[in-house]
Amino acid sequence: MRKLNLIIAAASLFAVMASPTLAEDIAITNGRIITMGDAGTIEGGTILIADGVIEAVGMDVTVPDGYRIIDAGGMIVTPGLMNAYTMLGILEIGLESATNDNTINSPSPFARVTSEAVFSAAFDVSYGINPKTMHIPIQRIEGLTRALVAPGTGSSIFAGQASVIDLSGDFDSITATRVAMVVSLGEAGKARAGGARGGLYVTLIRALNEALNYGRRGEGSLAGRERDSILSLFDAEALVPVVEGDMPLIVHVSRAAEILQVLALSHMFGELDLILSGAREGWMVADEIAAAGVSVILDPHANLPSSFEALASTLYNAGRLSAAGVTIAFRSPDGDVAYRTRLVRQGAGNAVAHGMDWDAALAAITINPARMFGIDESYGTLETGKDADVVVWDGDPLELMTNPVFVAIKGVEMVLESRQTRLRDRYMDLDDQESRHQYR
Amino acid sequence: MFKTSKHLTALGMLVGLAALLAAPAISQNADGDEDKEVKEQRPLVMVDKDPFPSTYQPLPSTAVVIINVTILDGLGGRTENGSVLMMDGKIKAVGESVEVPEGITVIDGTGKWVTPGIIDVHSHLGDYASPNTAGNSDGNEATNPNTAEVWAEHSVWPQDPGFERAMAGGVTVLQVLPGSANLFGGRGVTLKNVPSRTMQGMKFPGAPYGLKMACGENPKRVYGGKGRSPSTRMGNVAGYRAAWIKAVEYQNSWDQYYAKYEEGEDPNPPKRDLQLETLVGVLEGEILVHNHCYRADEQAVMIDISKEFGYQITAFHHAIESYKIADILAENDICAAMWADWGAGKMEMYDAIRENIPLVHKAGACAITHSDSATGIQRLNQETAKALAHANNAGIDISKAEAWLWLSYNPAKALGIADETGSLEPGKNADMVLWTGDPFSVYTMAERVFVDGALIYDLNDPDHQPVSDFRLGQAGQGDAR
């Protein structure tokens, strides 16, 4: 342990001086490797990392000359973690709107194209992502290496389109853009669609139909659009891949009865790739969700009857859904979409405490969100050919007092520092009055 | 009014106020005239300081001993394979072995841990109840920057399901505070976390009131947004000082009233002012200041204001930057109540660090883990575990036993109830949690929670899982967590 820390400390020093994008040849040896892939868990195995990707994983892997060795004896190795719903890079300080790029507020939802160029579904967060945000190092030093970056709900039920990023902080850290469309239903949605679910669903269905028509008629064509079309051309175009099944639709919904309404949308729009988000009362209709093959993003801690659409909220939700066969990914709470997105692993731990299988909980912060957003070819498991997002933990990664001792993103070791650790070090010794803190 | 005991004694009211009033008093007037008769004194006006008295009664309890258990005593001590004996609602004995009376209930605590019940100094349960409907929003009287006259207890809805969720997290005592929109938000109240039909039935008997004050962005945003003062931090400070000046005047007017009365005169009492009564309660040391204040530099300004007007700040809450001035807090005997890892929601939260609580502790100041959240209050042990882990990882050597100070003894001290609860010592209230294992593990849950020796929550027994009126008959009723 001490030896490993020394090795890592030396490596960190190097990394500070070197280019942050320098991928090394690294061998992680002797660890308990939880691959999340077909190989399952490998006790005392080796992972080789070269050119930013995983070169080999297994028991009988020989470490070639020139590889830096990380001895993970007695430790646990997992894929880097992923939070399935954040605003990392587009939300700096919640109450300072100038610092944020997370939400589109259009004065007139569903307006036609006007001089104001009003749109909502067409909003694409990727243009505003700032990889240099303070928040990214804070998350990655606790083992988070990927995140969905999703829009917040503005004045329309359609929030816009999400991206996936890695947490390297590099300028090229966007993994994939336009990976999902977000729509708010439930109380938040109906407040933006006339005040009643009966109006909300009529609106939504109409909008999806317009997108279907728009897709069939061809790009740029106005033919077939009716005088009272509710979607702008921007939004109609953005929704075409949703109704054609090429882009998942993340649906914020909580109430059990309403979840069934959402599942029923698949009867009208057969290609829809639905992902439920929130799903506070999901456990009540777990079998129906599982039968529909719909996956769920949820915050495991959300157990208060905080609204009349979430009266059956419980910490047992994740475990019950998972037991019914529903694929789960975890997110942090609504108010914690940047600074505390690292806490998905605490949520995963609490889900396990409340009945979820440990492996399923780890999948909910690795491979499951990777599959939901179509990046599982490159991320989500420790398997040959995948990006080397690798974390070495000094204990059970779902435990509160476990720390990462090594974090690599795409094969590059991350220095385990953040603006916050710098502040800590600056004020660690208050007895030393010799120099002003600002010089430290 | 505010020197109740002194004036009572001076006037001999306890032995015969009636007699005194019956016979006209003889005294010298200010001009030094001969003794002369002054007019008959009307009864002395005294303000009832406890008009909403606690009606709390402990739930029935039996003598219980937990054996073979790991004990964190809340004072920094740890005992392996120890025993805790509770009788008559009190801790009777704690140690490696205790004398167990015959015939009492024995709980085998093998593999389990016992700690004092968690005390949250910063909650809005009951005031911002679940569900979060407009009708339940009772936490911020955001109509004036000084609402020291409002009392959080008058908003408490005892049927808030959040109370029972907090109970399942091992919380036995909590302070419910008004919100932070105002410079002076009003009085906070300390409650025992027990099921009750009334707020009074939860009130911690004898606990002092708190006064919620707020620094920084919230007051200036709320009132600046309404085009009135304060709209800046300097406006905030002017507002505090103006209020304290009025409070001092008010205090003097009552002191003069009592002095004149004592001299045998029949003065007119000052007109009661609920707002100023609360502030004078602070000046008299009877009401404890709980000051929402994020930034270190603002905390330092608030300390100077307290010195200018002669009151003590009990605790800074949401004290995001206390790590920068922990030495100053220690010198001034001020607690810092903190989150483990909230930050960046506002500009004044931007310098939040993970080691804030441990660094305050390390500097010798009183550190507290608080929630301010109906969700967070359910896992304050986990919040503490995260802070401790980051501290240990940064080379700050603090044990789990020491860290429990942040969860029970220090908050009890900040609430003025540390003589009664907050640690496992003989004679103290048996406010205690038996955990399924190490409470610093994410997999551990509160198995049994005791308040005054009574079992108020049992993880494995639905008969000991309270269901608020609101949840009764609803879909989620069956889930205690």
Describe this structure in words.
The complex is a heterodimer of chains A (440) and B (481). With 440 residues, chain A is of the alpha/beta class. Chain A has 12 helices and 16 strands. In chain A, the strands form 2 sheets. In chain A, strands 1, 2, 3, 4, 5, 14, 15 and 16 form an 8-stranded mixed β-sheet that branches. In chain A, a hairpin with a 2-residue loop joins β15 and β16. Chain A is globular and about 70 Å long. Chain A starts with a helix and ends in a 13-residue tail after the last helix. Chain B is of the alpha/beta class and 481 residues long. Chain B folds into 2 domains: 1-44, no CATH class; 117-253 and 268-423, Metal-dependent hydrolases (TIM Barrel), CATH 3.20.20.140. In chain B, the strands form 3 sheets. In chain B, strands 3, 4, 5, 6, 7, 16, 17 and 18 form an 8-stranded mixed β-sheet that branches. Chain B has an 8-stranded mixed β-sheet with strand order 8-9-10-11-12-13-14-15. In chain B, a hairpin with an 8-residue loop joins β1 and β2 (36-37). Chain B is globular, with a radius of gyration of 24 Å. Chain B starts with a helix and ends in a 23-residue tail after the last strand. The model of chain B is unreliable at 1-34 (pLDDT under 50). Classes of the chains: A alpha/beta (440), B alpha/beta (481). The interface between A and B is large, with 52 and 56 residues.
Major beta sheet summary of chain B:
8 strands, mixed
What are the secondary-structure elements of chain B, in order, as H or E? HHEEEEEEEEHEEEHHHEHEHEHEHHHEEE
Would you identify the regions of chain B where 5 or more consecutive residues have pLDDT less than 50?
A: 1-34
Number of strands of chain B: 18
Tell me the fraction of residues in β-strands of chain A, as a range. 15-25%
Whole-number average pLDDT of chain A?
91
Radius of gyration of chain A: 23 Å
Tally of DSSP helical segments of chain B: 12
In CATH, the architecture of the largest domain in chain B is Alpha-Beta Barrel
Name the overall outline of chain B: globular
Helices and strands of chain A: which structural class? alpha/beta
Number of helices of chain A: 12
Strand fraction of chain B equals: 15-25%
**CATH A-level architecture of the largest domain in chain A:** Alpha-Beta Barrel
CATH C-level label of the largest domain in chain A: Alpha Beta
Annotated CATH homologous superfamily of the largest domain in chain B: Metal-dependent hydrolases
Shape of chain A: globular
